[in-house]
Model the fold of this input.
Amino acid sequence: MPLIDVKNIGKTYYNDRVETHALRDVSFEINEGEFVAIMGPSGSGKSTLLHILGFLDRHTNGKYRFDGKTIDDYSKEEIAHVRNKKMGFVFQSFNLLARTTVLENVKLPLLYSDVKKSMRDEIALKAIESVGLSHRISHESSQLSGGEKQRVAIARALVNKPNVIFADEPTGNLDSKSGKMVMEFIQKLNEEEGHTIILITHETYTAEHAQRIIRVLDGNIESDTKVNHRHRARDHFEK
Amino acid sequence: MIFSDSFTTALGGLQTNKSRSALTILGIVIGITAIILVMSVGQGAEDLILNQVRGLGSQTIIIEPGREPTGPSSFAELFTDSLKPKDVDALRKPSNVQGLKELTPMVMQVAAVTFENETVRTNVIGASELIAKILDIFPNKGSFFTDEDIRQKANVAVIGSEIKSKLFGPSEALGEKIKLKGRTFRIVGILPPKGQVALFNADDMVVVPYTTAQQYLFGINHFNTILAQAETEDMMPRVVRDIELTLRETHNIDDPDKDDFHVTTQADAAERVQTITGILTVLLVSVAAISLIVGGIGIMNIMLVSVSERTREIGLRKALGATEKDIMTQFLLEAVMLTALGGVVGIALGAAFSFLASLILSRIVALGWVFTFPIAAALLGLGVAAFVGLVFGLYPARQASLKSPMEALRYE
Done:
């Protein structure tokens, strides 16, 4: 059974009786452990797709099964729980809590889960270690560089050991060096920890870190191809 | 999410905006301060008046003309002339009123009293020695005039300590002649300082036989008040009833609702005082409560601003797994913590201000004022403050909880 099973989904917005089709007819499957990039220019519907996949938004047509279940199978509480335990999010603009330490930021998803208070620090510290920021734990998020912020966000996405990590333009606000470093960690998560990664980007270069690229244009899937020559972030980094 | 986490989260939210939090609670602080102040001062005033009323003694009965005043407009009833000498004669008959120890009619007016070149205005009271017994004050020089003086309509007077010092200074006053409304009175007794007793300032009065006052000073044939004393406290209800029945008979009244007099005991008076101060306190507290509502609206306003300002934070929390309930709890707790803090500060300020007021009233105005801290009011104030937070925090918290995580994350 695929982790993500999308069949003919569409999303239509109604604004002042004007219909806007953000997504028209999209179908694909993503299996556990895959690293998939969803590519497309701005306005193509890729962000809408990510929101639907991440249970942040509801589609208007078709069927979307996550881990065998649709969003309608869950109550509001359960949706929050699925987001908390099974999904991790990394955003373009980091979305860390201001005036809050790295440790507290990474611990945030644990607050909303059933993890015991005494365990939280340990789990969060491990996640911070895995993105190489152990020396920064008591810094406030505003004192970090962009790359560091995004690595904190990755640690936060990891902390509940989700089935899938959604990364929405994670390198969009970063310089190329920080961007490569972030991509390195994302790739490492996929290869070493076996996390399923769904990456949204409009850059071909970034997308080519994935195993597979789904191209979206005007709310439809343009192509769904395997990446033959994957970029290895670590290679670039080592050069 | 467990409650202690919500609590820590809410506290963190408040701490990141310290000065705004402080300004937000100002309305609540003022409201609670006002309530505590009003209730404390109200309690102090009530205690003060009650002490004075109780100063009359539990066996004292006051008969006044007119119906019992029920409001400002009916106080004029007190100036009717329904109490006449024949009432006094009737009341004095043991066959009419049993268990009555003593009784004196009273007339009073404010008048000028003159000695040589000194003149002071004071309360001139026409009564018998009973007034001294009721007020528990006896001349330390000379003696009170006698019943014989009353029968004779003698021109004798007993003066309070303040009148003595104003008119005579340190020199001897006993036996001197003072003038009241052009008539000469001989001072037969001087009262020691005593201060306020019930509604009388015992230091600032001149007491003359009521017969003399009626005929020669005021030129009236009625009495302003009749003071009586029952033999024991247990007999009070009986004596009061007998007095009422006797007066109805002498006034030819069948229907008690048409009484042209009213009988008051210390217990009645205390009850009346409590009613009046109670009404006043409720009135003032309601005024103060308005500021609580205003404060609550202020909280709601700021919370709404805060919710829209923190749209991203809310979206993020929801994306990371916060439920609507978690978000609701967080913002509701923020509001309740704000108002509860406002309540605590208000209680402290209110207590401080009412203590200051009691100092001023007891030192400067020299009333026997005692500071009371209304613990019940403080607890109530805290409860009300938290409740205001709950009520006015509900809407913003609901707004926060309903934000869609996607909309919230998009919000710039």
Remarks:
- Chain A has a mean pLDDT of 90.
